From TrEMBL:
InterPro entries: FUR, Fur_C, WH-like_DNA-bd_sf, WH_DNA-bd_sf. This is Transcriptional repressor. Zn(2+) binds at residues 95, 98, 135, 138. It comes from the Bacteria. Pfam families: FUR. Its main location: cytoplasm. It comes from Insulibacter thermoxylanivorax. The lineage of its organism: Bacteria, Bacillati, Bacillota, Bacilli, Bacillales. Keywords: Cytoplasm, DNA-binding, Iron, Manganese, Metal-binding, Repressor, Transcription, Transcription regulation, Zinc. Fe cation binds at residue 127.
Length: 146
């Protein structure tokens, strides 16, 4: 078990959340996944190992993880939430053709947040910046079709 998973399990235990085998499997899957999976994708991946687990169980556990600050829910225009266990400050670029989401590291935009506060009077608690385009795989597929 990775140290990230162990740390997350300790954090859950400290907040009084009981660790079940399903919870541990969902959390481990998320921590090891680089694909920003949906609840359905998590369910389909874990269902062979946990045949009695329902999609509702996955959703409920993801909600627990989000509330505990271990997982970030990414909501986009298509209505399908995706989940990210990397809680560091980073951004995402999404392929408009296949839906792949890739992490993109960039220095925090705190200067822009301060500027927004000065111009609007708001107290900014965070921001979301998203990039959209076509991933290399989809570009290769479309160029081979022509």
């Amino acid at each position: 078990m990775s140290s990230r998973v162990e740390h997350a399990l300790q954090k859950l235990k400290a907040t009084g959340i009981r660790m079940t085998p399903q919870r541990q499997a969902i959390l481990t899957f998320l921590m090891e996944s680089m694909t920003h999976p949906s609840a359905d994708e998590i369910y389909r991946s874990l269902e062979p190992k946990f045949p009695n687990m329902s999609v509702a169980t996955v959703y409920n556990n993801l909600k627990v993880f989000v509330e505990a600050g271990l997982v970030r829910e990414l909501t986009y225009g298509d209505g399908a939430s995706r989940f990210d266990a990397d809680m560091s400050d980073h951004y995402h670029v999404t392929c408009e053709q296949c839906g792949t989401i890739v992490d993109f590291e960039h220095s925090p935009l705190s200067d822009i947040e301060r500027e927004v506060e000065q111009h609007t009077g708001f107290v900014v608690k965070g921001h979301r910046m998203e990039f959209y385009g076509t991933c290399p795989d989809c570009m290769a597929k479309s160029s081979s079709v022509h």
